[in-house]
Amino acid sequence: MKFRRNGEPADGRYRMVKDALSDCSRGYLENVVDVLGNKRVGNRMKDNGPGFMAIAARYLLVDKYESEVEKIDVGILKSVAERLGICRQIGEEKKRRGLPIYVPGREREVLERVGRLAAQHGLEELAKKIFRDLMGESKRVQAKV
User: pTM for this structure?
Assistant: First the structure.
């Protein structure tokens, strides 16, 4: 099978698979995956070569999960923006009251709390890295006020 530079089959099978599944619901996608092993996708297409199932699986399943990840990414970014907005307000209040931006005890509290929550999911170190970066950005935002 010949492929284009972007990894799609040159003979148009990718487009046929996408067209065949364009109106599929989530429940139907599992049926499509099941029938891939039987060398057909839905009722509209047969396997025309050994690489077809790999190509179909790559595009069908990966597209589904990438779409879900993209939705999660939007939520993460909205939450970060909301967090930084609140940090800006905290910075304004600290400035009004003459309080320091950096409070080491507070940073330790946040890292400990986040570490405990993240440990339940096996993400303790990752969460601490992320929150160290977030707290660094929070200090930067507060310093600009």
Answer: 0.59
